[in-house]
Amino acid sequence: MNANNQIIVALDCDSRAAAEDIVDRLGDECRLYKVGLELLTVAGPDFVKLLVARGKEVFLDLKLFEIPNSVAGAVRAAGALGVSMVTVHGMGGLGIMTAAVDAARAFPGLRILALTVVTSMTDGDLADIGVSGSTEEQVVRLARLAGKAGCHGVVASPREVAALRSALGADALIVTPGVTLPGDGSPGEHARAGTPRAAVVAGASHVVVGRTVTRAADPAATFRLVRTSLTAGCWS
Fold first, then answer.
1. Model pLDDT for residues 172-225, shown as the tens digit of each residue
2. Which amino acids are annotated catalytic?
3. Which residues in 5-161 belong to E strands, given as ranges?
4. Going from the N-terminus, what domains does the chain have, and what CATH number goes with each?
């Protein structure tokens, strides 16, 4: 896989102007962008349309967790915007994930990804909400359920990628947030972080890179560093 097609830049911005500035500075270097709840709330769906119109692919990270009918409606709305990927929460169970997959069928380019366990959570956090076992066990459990529902892939931390690739096979998408370049220091809110190369070597199809790129003095140069770090570690 071309390394350019594996890197998703997270536009976790508090204004449309800030997000547009990053996209402008990255130019043709980046094709894939993540739009999450903060940016969607502040900038609205028109910003997603702008990205699509500029030839970018959009990973709309909604983490949908609602009744199946509402999830299906949100997926159809996302498909109409032209996004490439949208997330549904694996904890919603088969009914919610199946509704999302069924709604996406009308949009051939739309992929449904199941969020497993957010990268800020630890084993202790899972215990707090009554989930026994480790984060990796829960991630794999939800990933298998997502596969049963027909999801195209999952979202999980770099630390679970190898187990997921073994469980899901070669074709599933595995999208990994919580990646930073070596030497970047604190991983921020990610309790289960890793490097982009380690994630891809383990079998990730995509890595999501946020502040490492967006807060760099030269985002395009840093993006190229991330891309270079993947080149020697691409999986096939």
1. 999 999 888 876 655 567 778 788 999 999 999 999 999 999 999 999 999 999
2. 63
3. 7-10, 32-35, 57-64, 85-89, 111-115, 153-155
4. 3-231 (3.20.20.70)
Please enumerate in sequence order all residues whose Cβ is within 8 A of that of 203, keeping only pairs 6 or more positions apart, or say none.
161, 162, 164, 165, 174, 235
Could you list the residues known to form a binding site for substrate, using ranges: 12, 34, 119, 210-211
Q: Measuring CA to CA, how many Å separate 82 from each of 79, 154, 207?
A: 5, 20, 21
Which ranges of 105-149 would DSSP assign to H, the alpha helix?
123-128, 135-149
Q: Which residue has the tokens 């909400």?
A: 129
Q: pLDDT tens-digit profile of 86-119?
A: 999 999 999 999 999 999 999 999 999 999 999 9
Q: Which residue positions form the known binding site?
A: 12, 34, 119, 210-211
Predicted model pTM:
0.93
Taking residues 20-41, what's their average pLDDT? 97
Burial level of 82, CB count in 10 A (0-12/13-18/19+)?
A: middle
Asked if 111 and 153 touch (Cβ cutoff 8 Å), the reply is yes
Q: Give the whole-angstrom CA distance, residue 117 versus residue 187.
A: 17
